[in-house]
């Protein structure tokens, strides 16, 4: 009835090999604490000096050094690995990649692929960012069963960063209801400070499920500062674990009894009419 879950927080830089080594060290730390599912943050493998740097490391779907290393990490540490996000090549379009989360099972087998659907654009007069300049949006949501060591399957929805602002995606993932929603992110400092916790707790409460959020959190070599605050939120919206800034992990136990009690006491999911 329970499964230990963990979020890795990183401050990734422009060298993929170093980032992968640091990611594996954190996965090992989480596994040593009993985690069965570990999530890496968005762009764990590269926070480039320029937006187009991601295109240089974009791999074909199903093969490449980053994908092979991720499969090895999952198998070596015997965890379900929600592998943050990495750029995958778009066939026939060298100017764009997808921002993709891959999921690996404890045998190192790929269990799912999700391409970020909602692409971020921000302009406050000082800072400008438009993901569509280098990314191709996805179109298909992903929810899959994560089987814990006790044999219980936990339906898990996968989302990336800006997706968090679109509750209709989470409603679609929650049909049927999820035990867990995962958000891998690299929220900017100003948007994170204003909305990160608010949105995470809202998505957990709306869908009466656990929410695991892994984030980039600190000052990067490219000058960007990300918000961090990786956290685990329960179905009542309570934060049960949080790391404000810097590299590290947060770990908690996904307790299905807690979920069942909340859904019984307030059966909001049964009351939906639209």
Automatic annotation (TrEMBL):
Top EC class, one word: hydrolase
InterPro entries xrefs: C-N_Hydrolase (IPR003010), C-N_Hydrolase_sf (IPR036526), Nit1/2_C-N_Hydrolase (IPR045254)
GO terms of molecular function: nitrilase activity
Transmembrane segments: none
Span of domain CN hydrolase: 3-256
EC number: 3.5.5.1
Gene3D superfamilies in UniProt: Carbon-nitrogen hydrolase
Keywords carried by this UniProt record: Hydrolase
PANTHER family (UniProt xref): DEAMINATED GLUTATHIONE AMIDASE (PTHR23088:SF27), NITRILASE-RELATED (PTHR23088)
Protein name as annotated: Nitrilase
